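A favour, since you know our structure tokens better than I do. Would you make up a two-line entry for one protein for me to read? Write everything out right here, beneath this request.
=====
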Amino acid sequence: MRQNNAIIALHEDSALAGFCYIETWTHGKYVAISGLIVVPEFREHGLGKRIKQAVFELSRRKYPDAKIFGITTTPAVMKINSDLGYRPVSFDDFTRDEEFWDGCQSCPNYDILTRNNRRNCLCTGMLYDPENEENQSANPTKNRSRDSNNGTAESSGENTNNSNGSVT
């Protein structure tokens, strides 16, 4: 968090509502968006989508040429990723950094991943490639003005401030 690589959502009473962070791989060529967590009482209100949008914008701002990827088994996250311009891809399209793949060891599907030489798994790999024009037309942030609301959006007692990489 000291590197401003996390989005933290707090309710107006300062209770933690959600979280997500980014990590870079292959010398900034790839950005992984990981750890999307929305506290159960804050689910079903669009907060996960807002956090994911904020962390996506943070990634694009900090690493504009990087390919952004994520691995998930959750249909809701797949939908959010698709709306942001991600496309399902083979794991061959991801970083080869061993440290990244070591992070999968805690997943119950890790044995499937390793048996298949990291080519496929029960998880779905999704990638946003800034070089792909198809992504650009699908990405809802492409034509959005950064200056409207000074980068701040308010709703449901939550504020999103993307200028410093946090949601408060």
Summary: The domain at 6-147 is CATH 3.40.630.30 (Aminopeptidase). Residues 142-168 have pLDDT under 50 and may be disordered. The longest helix spans residues 47-62.
